[in-house]
Amino acid sequence: MHPPHLDSPPRPPGPRATVRAALALAVLCVLLLLLVAASWQPLMSLDGTVARTTHRWAVGEPGVTQAFRILTDWVWDPNTMRLLAAVAAVWLLWRRAERWPVVWLVAACALGTLVQQGLKAAVGRERPEWPDPVDSAHYAAFPSGHAMTATVVCGLVLWLLRLYGAGRVLWLSALTVAVVSVAGVGATRVWLGVHWASDVLGGWLLGALTVTLTVASYEKWRGARRS
Fold it and tell me: N or C end of the chain: which has fewer CB within 10 A?
């Protein structure tokens, strides 16, 4: 592993902070899952209000809606995100970097996919239905696979950049792209009427939890290996 550059981004939080973050995210994930599974009325009402408002906007702004369809179907599609993770893994192997972070990257992406598909089947939440839909999607709604996959891949790519001492310019550029992508894909899914807002929130939280657990497990494994 190459030493960090002098203009590298700030060092990552310590193991204890990472574990605390993982615990907090886990609590939030479980809480949201229970509320969705129980169809908690205040949450359902809020989801409905947001969905009706954004659908009205989507119908009234066909140009924006078409742009969002392109972004969600091609730029931020889960397969595009997985391809990005694969490119990062191949690039690291080509650079003959340490192989173990690549193993963690691949395993985390695979685990994230299994978790989201398992939860979709277990919760079985219906997607929004409209008399005049602007887009369509299959399978159950919770959590949003687009939001979770983008969060996992972008989060892990940022982790790898920091792990290998990326310069500040590259780090800030990647951070900006990651934030825009994760927030943007969530917005497109709600705007296009194929997800409830809480589906997207669930995808973000589960994705962040996956990234945090990945980083924590790698750091613990590396520390045990060195001792």
Answer: C
